[in-house]
Amino acid sequence: MLTPRKIDVVLLCGGLGTRLKKIVHDRPKPMAEINRRPFLDILIDYVSDYGFRRFILCTGYKGDVIRKYYETKNAHAVFLFSEEKEALGTGGAIKNAEPLIQSEVFMVMNGDSFCDLNMHDFVNYHDSKKAFASIALVKKEMSLDCGVVRTDGDGRIIGFHEKVKADGMSLVNAGVYLFSKEVLSLVPVRKNCSLEFDLFPLLVQNKAVYGFFTNQQLIDIGTPERYELAKKIFNSDQ
């Protein structure tokens, strides 16, 4: 049976965080503080509560800040670091971390977003579907440019429409994925590759890719406005 302790977690932390730099300029975006804690800490603690223990942090811009923090962190977890010398995109960052990934199924998460996802249910869903890849999906009011996902009646993903305008409620990629390790063979070495634009369309055409639906809110800190909203949400949970 697939369990969290058998699954490595790859956290994407290498982005430039351009839109957030005007208020968070001395550290990478996932290290922006909420309640005097790095956002990344909140994310890792949440995932750890489900039993995940091995974390691979994909770093780039100001990656030394992340390394120094987690090298000295006293926690019941293992932290490994995959450092990008040049920007490789979300897919390229995962490929760069391949030598560190040990589990046959691994999870990938954006380091700048949070969804109160039941990880046990997500893992069980992936296992029961015998999926090559599973993507957490949330319903969201489409007021901003965003990736829209289409599924069939069985939950299988049949299409992606990245950064499009849409009206009403749509299914949105929550930035949490489970992958078979075989997916790494489809990503080029040391080349810029996007999960959303390059890999996912390829997978949908050739592999069993399923969407896992949740009604939970998707929180991200990508802009000053969203960062301030995230602080209010997490403060209200205290």
Can you describe what's shown?
The chain is of the alpha/beta class and 238 residues long. A hairpin with a 2-residue loop joins strand 2 and strand 3. Helix 3 crosses helix 5. The radius of gyration is 17 Å and the shape is globular. The N and C termini lie far apart (35 Å).
Nutshell version of this structure?
The chain has 238 residues and is an alpha/beta fold. The chain is 26% helix and 32% strand.
Strand order in the largest sheet: 5-4-1-6-11-8-12
Number of beta strands: 13
Into which percentage range does the β-strand content fall?
A: 25-35%
Helix content: 25-40%
Unreliable stretches (pLDDT < 50, length at least 5) are none
CATH homologous superfamily name?
Spore Coat Polysaccharide Biosynthesis Protein SpsA, Chain A
The span between the termini is 35 Å
Order of helices and strands: EEEHEHEHEEHEEEEHEEH
Rg calc: 17 Å
Output the CATH class name: Alpha Beta
User: How confident overall, as mean pLDDT?
Assistant: 92
Q: Largest sheet, if any?
A: 7 strands, mixed
List the helices and strands and how they pair.
Blueprint: E1 8-13, E2 33-34, E3 37-38, H1 39-48, E4 54-59, H2 63-71, E5 78-83, H3 89-96, E6 105-110, E7 113-115, H4 119-129, E8 133-141, E9 146-151, E10 157-164, E11 169-180, H5 195-206, E12 209-214, E13 218-220, H6 224-236
Parallel strand pairs: 1-4, 1-6, 4-5, 8-12
Antiparallel strand pairs: 2-3, 6-11, 7-13, 8-11, 9-10
Helix pairs in contact: 3-5
